[in-house]
Design goal:
There is one protein chain. The protein is of the alpha/beta class and 233 residues long. Helix content is 39%, strand content 22%. The chain has a 5-stranded parallel sheet with strand order 2-1-3-4-5, with helices on both faces. α4 runs parallel beside α8 and α6 packs across α8. The longest helix is centred in the middle third of the chain and has 16 residues. The radius of gyration is 18 Å and the shape is globular.
Length: 233
């Protein structure tokens, strides 16, 4: 069975080596880059299954690298953020990160997060996915692709699975707790805004519904609901 190839971008050489040693023992192949530019060059030159990207690096930041990467690639990204730096986490998610983990990070938790995002990319685990549609929104399971009015959307693995869950439950409220467990593979933390940011990104990419409103409705203190949009388009 092929080993998953992971790129770690962190200027902290000691931490990067510690993470590489642990992840190698866990069955991953790991390449290290110590700057954002080196990480972008490696991601363009080689095939990786996921990127672990530190936010704070000398020169170009991890956020700048993520912004550039998302113009050309849907490579799954887990951000490493300083403990308590909520703004970095939110901005990273808005730029298209799939998840984040605070530093100093537990290597075992990082391995679990990597396995979760890789399962999402491959459509493993959870409910069996089938083709889904709701009005102009079309989701194709085999290719893990989405279109709106025939226009293809570029979604991260997390956004794709979030949309699939909302499509399956169209017309019903889906709690944030269920979304976190089903999509991120972890319990919802008391101050965790990841789901809100992923929904915001998905809303922006889906655009307006045929009636001019958003396809996704926020249900205060409950969760989110994908409206029934009919059979058009």
């Amino acid at each position: 069975m092929a080993r998953n190839r992971i790129l770690i971008a962190d200027d902290d050489e000691e931490l990067a080596q510690l993470l590489r040693d642990f992840l190698t023992r866990e069955g991953f192949d790991v390449v290290i880059a110590h700057s954002a530019d080196a990480a972008l060059a490696a991601a363009r030159a080689q095939a990786f299954d996921a990127l672990v990207l530190d936010v704070m690096m000398p020169g170009r930041s991890g956020l700048d690298a993520l912004r550039e990467l998302r113009r050309e690639s849907a490579l799954p990204v887990i951000m490493l953020t300083a403990l308590g730096e909520d703004i970095d986490r939110i901005l990273g998610l808005e730029l298209g990160a799939d998840d984040y983990i605070p530093k100093p990070c537990n290597p075992r938790e990082l391995a679990a997060r990597l396995r979760a995002v890789l399962r999402r990319v491959r459509g493993e685990g959870g409910d069996t996915l089938t083709d889904l549609h709701n009005g102009p929104i079309r989701l194709r399971a085999a290719s893990r692709s989405v279109s709106v009015d025939g226009r293809p959307l570029s979604l991260t693995a997390t956004e794709f699975d979030l949309l699939a869950l909302l499509l399956r439950e169209a017309g019903r409220v889906v709690s944030k707790e269920r979304i976190s467990q089903s999509v991120l593979g972890r319990p919802l933390g008391p101050f965790d805004r990841s789901i809100d940011v992923h929904v915001s990104n998905l809303r922006r990419k889906l655009g307006d519904a045929p009636d001019g409103g958003s396809p996704i409705t926020t249900i205060h203190r409950s969760g989110y609901l994908l409206r029934q949009l009919g059979d058009g388009a």
